[in-house]
Design a protein that fits this description.
single chain; alpha/beta; Immunoglobulin-like; Muramoyl-pentapeptide Carboxypeptidase, domain 1; globular
């Protein structure tokens, strides 16, 4: 790792890390040879480091100063628990991008994914994003309470016949009635990672993160399943207002402790016996706002530190009849998970399909070696899978497990869909 040489002070004695991944908004391919300047937010002209992207559109992982770990683990401490940095990104043929307020927590890696738009011939232009304060640190409207189970017999209400994990959701970046707010098409998993990174701290215990991710996903899938906003005449799935839904922030970073949990759990949601729809699992922070009948985020952190599992945390707040369910269908994938890990010695159509998808992806990611699509999981296939996992932030085991299968499908669809259009 490359450590940025900064003037460490008494209140920034710890380190977090950051990796930046750039893709083209035109064809989902990586953006190589980009230049990224990093500075402290508030001191944008004092460049701390210059980074460049490789053929996979990635920078090296660098270390950055961050506040003490205790700040993000103790609700009684009111100091800001993360440091903020500004990124200025330039790449040949693309509009430049500036992101202020990238949040670096100690001991975890921040992952900053950026979509670059091709530049036009009218002259230089720049997209500017300013990341607001984390919801546990800043002040945001409290959630307006709703029934956790929506009535399904209202005349004219549109309701899906089964629970489906969508490929994309439409996020209205404001309150529902704000007609000036922009709608964003966001991949479902990216949305969950963004919200979790905006609403809990990535330094929290793993089972605390799992419990909160499950609550966020169940709430979101309730909005999808009941077509909540579309039944009111709106053309979006969910909002970014904390009064109505979750905090979602365009171009914010997420973390390596949250991303793999979402990749593992993304088809899950929370159920009660006899209820078909995902439960609208509401919550509050438990420090600025109290909510006796819901999960509190700081309380879930404490339970995780005491050794509670994710389902134990959820049942502590929502009752003993809450259980984890799995969606019947996942939208936007060529073929579903085979039901078992693919590893050395595996053969058959699922192996061949996975090999063909990796070869298509290799057309966009030159660092990924091409392999024979022979339906046999040999050493070359294992090496290609391991490289894919390392590029896309998965544990580099060389085994196609559940998260890897769906990540290959996701990247394959993104790369091949644009190719088909061309």
């Amino acid at each position: 790792m490359n450590t940025i040489q900064q003037h460490a002070s008494a209140d920034t004695p710890e380190l977090g890390s950051l990796q930046i991944n750039l893709t083209s908004g035109l064809n989902s391919r990586p953006v190589a040879d980009a230049t990224i300047h990093i500075s402290y937010t508030g001191v944008p002209d004092s460049i701390l480091e210059e980074l460049h992207t490789d053929s996979s559109g990635q920078t090296e992982t660098i270390e950055l100063n961050a506040p003490p770990l205790e700040y993000s683990l103790n609700p009684a401490i009111e100091e800001q628990p993360y440091s903020e940095y500004t990124l200025h990104i330039e790449a040949p043929g693309f509009e430049s991008v500036s992101i202020a307020g990238v949040e670096i927590l100690p001991t975890v890696k921040a992952i900053q994914n950026v979509t670059m738009n091709p530049s036009d011939t009218t002259g230089p232009s720049e997209e500017v994003f300013v990341i607001p304060a984390h919801t546990l640190y800043g002040t945001y409207p409290a959630k307006i309470p709703e029934s956790e189970i929506k009535p399904m017999d209202e005349t004219g209400e549109i309701v899906l016949s089964r629970v489906v994990v969508p490929e994309y959701i439409v996020v209205h970046d404001g309150s529902p009635r704000d007609s000036t707010a922009r709608n964003y098409y966001v991949k479902y998993k990216d949305y969950i990672k963004n919200v979790a990174s905006s609403e809990i701290y990535a330094t929290w215990p793993e089972d605390t993160i799992r419990a909160n991710v499950l609550a966020i996903m169940s709430f979101t899938l309730n909005r999808v399943y009941t077509e909540w906003y579309r039944n009111m005449g709106y053309d979006f799935t969910i909002t970014s207002s904390t009064a109505f839904d979750h905090k979602w922030i365009p171009e914010r970073n997420f973390y390596d402790t949250i991303s793999p949990i979402v990749d593992e759990l993304f088809s899950n949601y929370l159920s009660r016996p006899g209820v078909r729809q995902p439960i609208l699992t509401q919550y509050c922070d438990g420090r600025q706002v109290q909510c006796p009948d819901w999960m509190t985020q700081w309380g879930s952190c404490s339970l995780g530190e005491q050794g509670y599992s994710a389902i134990q945390i959820l049942r502590y707040y929502y009752g003993d009849d809450m259980y984890i369910n799995t969606a019947e269908s996942i939208a936007g994938i060529p073929s579903s998970w085979p039901g078992y890990d693919l590893d050395t010695g595996a053969t058959g159509s699922k192996v061949r399909q996975m090999q063909e998808q990796l070869n298509t992806i290799a057309g966009a990611y030159p660092a990924l070696p091409r392999i024979d699509a022979d339906g046999v999981y040999g050493p070359a296939t294992k090496a290609s899978v391991r490289k894919f996992q390392s590029i896309f932030g998965l544990p580099a085991t060389g085994i196609v497990d559940y998260p890897t299968w769906y990540k290959i499908s996701e990247v394959y669809v993104g790369v091949s869909r644009i190719a088909e259009l061309n």
